[in-house]
Each structure stands twice: as structure tokens, then as C-alpha cells.
Amino acid sequence: IKIIGVLTSGGDSPGMNAAIRSVVRTCAYHEIECIGIYRGFEGLIEGDFKSLSARSVNHIINKGGTMLKSARSKEFRTDAGQQKAHDNLVNAGIDALVIIGGDGSFTGGLVFNKAFNFPIIGIPGTIDNDIFGTNFTLGFDTALNTVVEVIDKIRDTASSHKRLFFVEVMGRDVGHIALNAGVGAGAEEILIPEEDLGLDRLLESLRRSKKSGKSSSIVVVAEGDKIGKNVFELKDYVEENMEEYEVRVSVLGHMQRGGSPSCFDRVLASRMGVKAVETLLEGKTNFMVGILDNKITLTPLEKAVKGKTEINKELLRVSDIMTT
Ligand code: F6P
Fold this sequence. Notes:
alpha/beta, 19% strand
């Protein structure tokens, strides 16, 4: 392997820049060339490439977003799109690809690998922490810190007005952000897709918390929660059924994806980048780099894509106890 390409794809996440930097510098360390591919698979199809030296990634470790930009490419799902992408890679002399992204990006990478037998390695970059084969994805820790900081602020105003807030957080169809940030911010209730609390138990829990003398209540709701109502409908429902509450809603949205990565995400990204490049140099392909029990690991990419992450049961129990 003489030239490695690197791209970021799907929803950006804090730590992606730190991972790009690590991939570029590991290539430089092993004296091979690294080419940055802009706008994910879109840029692969359009040949939007730029050679990256160790110095071209100075001072990006602390930056949110991704310097290579990102996209969700429809054209890459077609045979013609993939053929164009492959032609561009061959013309640029790129021998292998590091894909930084979530499971959608890995699925695209796997299809591409099957079609052209092109070596690829994945680095999990998403705030959702929903990838099998790693305890942490890049950006999850930073997003949690962002959410907790914001909920702390919401708490100030909630308790000044004795209000109940429904705070919707991201996470697609999993509740890892909601559960962790909810516990971290001392939420009164946490609604996640993995556990259907039910509307009756929600009301019961809110009544109990009011009765116990709390001056405010925060309910963290995962965007993929299956209680059957969105945060605005929940507000109406609670106001109809519980006169004692004045309710407000806060949907945190994309602010959760931005900001300077935490130290944890920067260190993790640095470790993953080194492993990704060195795995390719060992002649291996179709793996995802992960972290399990604080060890950098490799999981077959196919397993990473097919497997499902599980909600942390012990943390769920902690959350139940903390909300008493
Ligand atoms: O996967 C990351 C994520 O931020 C999810 O939490 C969210 O559901 C989704 O992406 C939002 O996607 P978009 O930025 O395309 O609206």
C-alpha cells in the first residue's frame, strides 16, 4: 500500500477532525501518501481529492465538524456512481480507504468493497453511539457534555418558574444519548426507545416527583422514543391530565453535533486513526476499529453494521434509583 484515501461520511461528529489528523500523520509516519476525499462518497464520485501532508492537519484536533466535509450520497448507491468512484481512486493511485462515519457509510463501503475488492477500514464517527463492536463512537462523549451543559441551563429557568420541561435529544432510534445525559443532568424521567415507559407510568412518576417537593422537572426524551407521542404532544397530554404543571418543550437539535471535541474524543480519535492505517498496512480489510474495555479492537465491518448495540441495563437501574 502506497497511498491511502480518507473520507468522512454521513452526519458529522466532533472528533472527526482529530481522526483525519491521526490518519494523515500515521501515513506520514509510515512514509506513505494520504489523500483527503472531500464530501464523503459524493467527492469520491466527483474526484474531489487533495493530498494531505502532516502539516496540512495542524490545529484541527480541537475543531468540531469535519475539514473534509460530509454528505449522504444517493449516487453512490448506484452501480454507475460506484464505477465512477472506483475509476477516480484508480486514477489517483489510491490503494485503500479509511471511512470515518456511521453504519450507513460502512454499508456503502462494504458494497463498494464487494464490487471492486477494494480495501477499506471503518472508524465509527457518530454522536449516537449506535455502532456494534465499540463501547464508544467518536463524538458521543462531546455530545453528552453539550447536552448536559444545556440541560443544566434549562434547569435554572425550570426551577425559577416551577416548570416541567420535555427536552428532546438526538440519537436516531437508540437512547444512549438520552440515558447518559439524563443521568448526568439529574433528569426526573428519561424516555428511550429501548424501554416503553407508557403514558400512565409517566404521569404517575411526574405526580410522585411533584409530591416529593421538587421545584422543577426535566424529562429527557430520545428522538426515537416509542411512547407514541412527540415532545409537543407530550406537553399537551401532561397539561390536559395534570393541572399542577406548567410545561415547556425544548428540542436541542443540531447543536448536539457541533463544538470542540472533548479530550476523550480527541484521544480516542487519535488511537483509532493509528489503528486504521496500520491495519491496512498489515494487508487487512473490511474491519471497523473500535474500543472495547479500553483496548483498541477490530470488528469485521459486516458484524459492526448488522449488530445492534444494547442499552446499559445497569445505568437504567441507576437512573431509576436516582429519580426516586
Ligand atoms: O446520526 C446522527 C444524527 O445527528 C442523529 O442523531 C439524527 O437523527 C440525525 O443524524 C439527523 O440527521 P440530519 O443531520 O440529516 O438531519
